[in-house]
Amino acid sequence: MALSVHVALACGLLPSVFPGFLNAGEFAKVQQERAAEREANLETQILQLVERKCVSSGEVRASYTRTLQKLRVEYIKVTGRDYPLPSCEGFGVPNG
To answer: Angle between the 24-54 and 58-79 helix axes, to the nearest 10 degrees?
Structure first.
């Protein structure tokens, strides 16, 4: 009896009690949505760091460079491609 109830719950056969677990299609959709959110977040972080790097110098600039590299590696893991960094001129900073 307990096994029957467990299977019924897990399969979503008693939605008023428990809606069941995600099926493979729903799980894939959630994964894609999370990856898209993470990609957008990484792009924002990268652009903000490039802009800060462009107006900085010395050790601060080196620190931004290291952090940018880590974010780019993570971006590659999430998307499978590299993120093309904009030039400082794109932020209105000549020869940054």
So the answer is: 160
Q: How many CB atoms lie within 10 A of CB 45?
A: 15
Domain segments of the chain as ranges: 2-28+35-91
Confirm if 30 and 22 have CB atoms less than 8 A apart: yes
Lowest mean pLDDT among 8-17, 28-37, 41-50: 8-17
Residues 4-41 as b/e (b if ≥16 CB within 10 A, e otherwise) read eeeeebeeeeeeeeeeeeeeeeeeeeeeeeeeeeeeee
When comparing pLDDT for 79 and 7, which is higher? 79
Distance, in Å, from the CA atom of 49 to the CA atom of 70, rounded to the nearest integer, reads 11
